[in-house]
Amino acid sequence: MMEVVRSKLHGIHVTDCELEYHGSITLDPIICRQAHIYPLEFVYIWNKNNGQRIATYVIYGEPGSKCCVLNGAAARCCQRGDPVIVCASEYLSDKSQLLSLRPQILTFDRENNIVEHLQYDVFSSQDFPYDFRITSLSDKPS
Known about the structure:
The model has no long low-confidence stretch (mean pLDDT 96). The protein has one helix at 29-35, and strands at 2-13, 16-18, 24-27, 42-47, 53-60, 68-71, 83-92, 104-108, 114-123, 131-136. By secondary structure, the protein is mainly beta. 5% of the residues lie in helices and 48% in strands. It has one domain: Barwin-like endoglucanases (Beta Barrel). The chain has a ten-stranded mixed β-sheet. The longest helix has 7 residues, at 29-35. It contains one helix and ten strands; from the N terminus they run E-E-E-H-E-E-E-E-E-E-E.
């Protein structure tokens, strides 16, 4: 089994930290749907300010709120305003499945507006059986 990136919210900013909550990360469902991140899905969270890396699960917040709230123990790993990377992964049973995977990556400004919509693409090239490129989908419908 190979664990690979399936979706990523790159540079989304923490809007709040709720220590006295059951756990999880609360995210705007509109953002999640565009990135193909699902409720109760386990995700990795990497804090760009302090290097902390944690894993927790997603719950959906208020649609359109642009929220990114760290709950429970995860609240100790971030502060309001910290840019984080939220990464959902997938397990592949064979590396050939990389050729059909199209991870969705969203980048953000400080107000959690989507700046760019990217897609990762692994493909076979003349030189390599597994090559890589990043394609911008920002000007294309999602």
